[in-house]
Amino acid sequence: MQTIITTDQNSTLSTQDRGLNYGDGFFTTAKVVDGKVQYWPYHKARLTECAQRLGFPNINFTELEERIGNCIQSYKLNVLKIVVTRGEGGRGYSLPTECNLTILLNVAAYPQNYLSLHQDGVSLAISPIKLAAQPLLAGLKTLNRLEQVLIKKAMQNESCDDVIVLDYNNNVIEASAANIFAIKGGRVFTPKLEECGIKGVYLQSLCDKLAIEFKVVSVEDLIQADAVFVCNSLMAAIPVKSIGSCIFDVSKSQLLLKELLAKEAKC
User: Fold this and answer.
1) How high is the mean pLDDT of the chain?
2) What is the pTM of this model?
């Protein structure tokens, strides 16, 4: 097996690449601080799980980590995107006899609005676009993101910072590009992701710090919570200031999460 790793400096992609033609691949997006990838063990675990569940060959992380290190060493606060495709080959949808991975590394600017949102909180509306159920892909960050493209398109008609995305049973799944979790009576809960949605890197890291219950969540459950947050690996946890006409105290939300983390750290 051969692995082709391309960066911004030497970017090439075959017109026969399966990631381009069929969305046959997966990716992760990471925050880079002072030349280091934050939460790298969790990103690495995500890439490994995606490869295993989609039937990809094992990723050579020794080579990949070396290339990533060379690619980001001069960056102070940026975003690294790692895209893995099954490469070229195969007739139609059929898999190639031999899989040669293509890995794309891209470094972009860090979204500056995340810094202000931490202080001000985010306003949420309900997206009219719902997520379809597919347990085989649930939790994975595959290259099939058309649902998210439609969600972002529909957001253009809303006056909000982000949206709550539901499934076809009207259960809360996630935000447009982030997980959602809430605090109620000192307990933390987040939507089940067994049929759709993505289990993000930051949420996974939070599960190692807090006891988080994965459950069926309704919009009403969020409205009745003491605090609600959206989170991903780039922005960490940002408090929700409103869901429609329901208003949350951002300072109180921040304090509740801080106290819970401090309490668990002592245990």
Assistant:
1) 93
2) 0.93
Report pLDDT for 2. 60
Which of 65, 92, 110 is the last residue before a domain boundary? 110
Closest CA to 54 of 88, 29, 27, 80: 27
Q: What is the predicted pLDDT for the residue at 32? A: 97
Domain boundary among 110, 129, 155: 110
Annotated catalytic residue 174: yes
> Is position 258 annotated as part of the catalytic site?
no
Residue range 44-55, pLDDT digits in tens: 999 999 999 999
- Residue of 31, 130, 174, 199 marked catalytic: 174
Per-residue model confidence (pLDDT) at position 187: 96
Question: What's the count of helices (H) and strands (E) in the chain, helices before strands?
Answer: 8, 14
CATH number for position 176: 3.20.10.10
pLDDT class for 213, splitting at 50, 70, 90? Answer: very high
Which among 141, 192, 199, 241 is annotated as catalytic? 141
CA–CA dist 103, 3 (Å, integer): 7
Q: For residue 259, indicate whether it is catalytic.
A: no
Domain hosting 240: range is 115-266
Q: Count the domains in the chain.
A: 2
Instruction: Tell me the C-alpha distance between 179 and 118, whole Å.
Output: 15
Q: Looking at the structure, do residues 256 and 160 belong to the same domain, yes or no? A: yes
Q: Give yes or no for residue 129 having a pLDDT over 70.
A: yes
CATH number at residue 58: 3.30.470.10
Nearest to 206 by CA among 243, 238, 158, 184: 238
